[in-house]
């Protein structure tokens, strides 16, 4: 493991140092007399306390400083794919291949568990923009499937991911089957680094033109399901997308924006360490991991 002042932390099994707190330390000003324990040790302490597997990739988009813990391990994407689906819709809109005001009919057969927006629109139509909003801001599953149908099915997400520089994420199934998250099943999976790389490209790169990139950011800033925000200081905001599924799988990926212009990419993917398909989600853990990242990136290099 390279120290926390280095660029990367490998996917090693790290023992927590003596005196490491059971919960992540809140962001604070650096005190050379009281240095923080290595970030890998703090993440490992959270892993043991929550009996969870944790994959993390984070980077300061201005300085390039990175934090990586088991960032190449595979986790189920779950609803994080909806950010790619919405970005792909925006990309086709900028190419003139479809219009965001184009409509899609919502039928009763389309409704899946957790479809809080679309279930109220059965028998009517929704615009593609409305479906993107529902998928991104409330993780509406029927909206996710209707976007997939518009794009040509799950393989379209895999293709879009590759174009965004994400060389690992793949989508094979539809909602809600894609959330089964069986450990070892390669379907519908990605890694923290690959997924974070793709999110960075669609939110800050040239995958989308400025207007459509801003639209995606605006939609994602209004996300109502964020888990990472609980671990961020006051005055920060995020453009992020969550996902959850079987075996306690709980993800949150996006960019955190600070009041002094900070832009930090956080790609957090977790699951329960056991073999219980009905293990509860790990939303509180996501916030604790975000707090550790904030504390680390606030330290001087």
Automatic annotation (TrEMBL):
This is Beta-lactamase. Residues 1-18 form the signal peptide. The lineage of its organism: Bacteria, Bacillati, Actinomycetota, Actinomycetes, Mycobacteriales. It catalyses: a beta-lactam + H2O = a substituted beta-amino acid. It holds the Pfam family Beta-lactamase2. Residues 55-270 form the Beta-lactamase class A catalytic domain. GO terms for biological process: beta-lactam antibiotic catabolic process; response to antibiotic. Keywords: Antibiotic resistance, Hydrolase, Signal. Its EC number is 3.5.2.6.
